[in-house]
Amino acid sequence: MLPSKSAVSIFDPDQTRLPAVAYQLDFADHAEEVPVHRHRKGQLIIALHGAVTCTADGDIWIVPPNCGVWIPGGVPHSARATENARLNYLFVEPGAVRLPQECCTLAISPLIREMVDRLARERGDYPADGHAARLARVALDELAEMPRERFNLPVSSHPKIRAMADALTAQPSDRSTLSQWAKRVAMSERSLARLMVRETGLTFGRWRQQLHLVVALRELAGGVPVQTVAAALGYESVNAFITMFKKVMGSTPAQYFARGTAGAGS
Questions:
Q1: Quick count: other Cβ atoms within 10 Å of Cβ 237?
Q2: Alpha-carbon distance 169 to 175, whole Å?
Q3: Which of 46, 109, 128, 218 could make a disulfide contact with 68, Cβ separation 3.0–4.6 Å?
Q4: Given 1.10.10.60, 3.40.50.300, 1.10.3210.10, 3.50.50.60, which CATH number is that of 155-265?
């Protein structure tokens, strides 16, 4: 039988006023879908293995290697993890450190990764003047210095943009042009182009490329072969997919995930 216990039912970070507490979650033991919920504390999600896709603040976020998704306190969010996902959550008390007031992806150094992993082995009621408290303070100070990355897909609440996003998320290999999408949603091509930029900040071509990147990172981190991912995204060849990936990420998928593995083991 597949695991059905939701991840949000086993740990409530808001029961403590400590500046930071961490929790490790293996999705082999829990349902892959995490329903919409919110915390008083902010939440940093770090993927140790596999990948997780979060929906928050009207965007879809992917947690790739060497990065973490930051969700401020009070923001409703949901998540979907790959079957092999193992995550560390760092929950941060509001006001404990200066972190962004909006959802974002933060670069995660090997030092932060190791400190959060160590803190996840502590109980959620550790002494406020003990070793774990000092570790949490250093981790928060380091986290506040981390740069932002762009691993999100803007998704508007506008019904026409949402319909396109739902369709392309379900079938990312769909290569319909903007003109074809305009006919489907009963708009002129020019009006749809303007609406897309206004609602997402991206042209249709850049938005779809970002969708492909988000899907590719999630699937590759989940262990899906590059050839399979390229085909699922509608690329005519593996080389065409690798070229897109390298253009956006600065390295091939193999190089990118090799760096992520090395960083996780540092």
A1: 11
A2: 12
A3: 46
A4: 1.10.10.60
| Structure token digits, residue 251 | 């390295």
> pTM of the entire structure?
0.78
Q: Using one digit for the tens of pLDDT, what is the confidence trace for 8-32?
A: 667 789 999 999 999 998 876 666 7
Smallest Cα–Cα separation from 81: which of 105, 113, 46, 108? Answer: 46
Per domain, the residue ranges of the chain are 7-149, 155-265
- Is residue 24 helix, strand or coil? strand
Long-range CB contacts (< 8 A, 24+ apart) of 238-244? 241/216, 244/209, 244/212
* Residues 258 and 265 sit within 8 Å (Cβ to Cβ): no
**Residues 179, 214: Cα–Cα separation, whole Å:** 24
HSE, side-chain direction, 13 A CA sphere, residue 167: 12
What number of residues does the chain have?
266
